[in-house]
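Hello, quick one for you while I still have it in my head. No rush at all, and the record is pasted right below.
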Amino acid sequence: MSPSIDNAKCVLVTGATSGIGRALALAIASLPSHPKVIGVGRRKDRLVELTEAGIDAENFDVNADKAATKTFVEEMIKKYPEIDTLVLAAGIQREVHFKKDVDLEAVATEMHVNYFSILAIISFFIPHLLAKSVSGHPCLIAPVTSGLAYVPAPWIANYSASKAALHSLCSSLRVQLEDTSIGVIEISPPLVESELHDAEGTTGALSRFWMPLEEYTKETIEGLQRGVNVVCSGMSKNIYEKFEQPKEQIITEMAKRAATHSQFQEMIVL
């Protein structure tokens, strides 16, 4: 079990200017525990709205290079030394059709935003969180993946792949940090009401099937409060329980073998 969001004193939320990120930022700020919430996004008009809702707003585009991301994290730690929780919700979604020309630059950007930027932010925050962990202070890292991390949607192949990579990272990170007070909760939504689909013009069609954002947010906050390793809803929950949950024990056993066997190949049983 991971720490509960109820233990959080200061929560940084990326992707906080729209969709799931914005909804979670507002919901977390409204918790009875009253944590400070820092909403991070690139749209300045939306950041003003967050400020009016009592959330500290910070302008940053996660599609930045490594140096800029490192500088941003250092500035956040200096400005908000009490940060103990990361909710990493920024993401983009694009269709990829291999029978047509593939825009590799767009594919690389999607992978950067959805995966590498999150890995980088976590990496740069880890020393700060580990320092808090030494004193037993509970900390939390909560990336937003997708049910498509488990079963891909072929028309958004790269998006599905980026979320699968992030899901895998969450599982490994959880094991690496198990001897600390830093928990890792994967937030894995199904198809949810969001602006994410506007870029491809699929919002109208998908709106017939998606989970309302308000309903999804309520279920997700409840999961974060319980401190479960993976917070799923709807179809994402069904797929996770069928295909992915059984792997958790295998991952744990692999980690134990790695710690006790001198030969790496002894850890892998195919």
Q: What stands out?
A: Residues 104-134 form the longest helix (31 residues). The chain has a mean pLDDT of 92. The beta strands are 10-14, 36-41, 56-59, 85-88, 139-143, 182-184, 186-188, 230-232. The chain has one domain: 5-267.
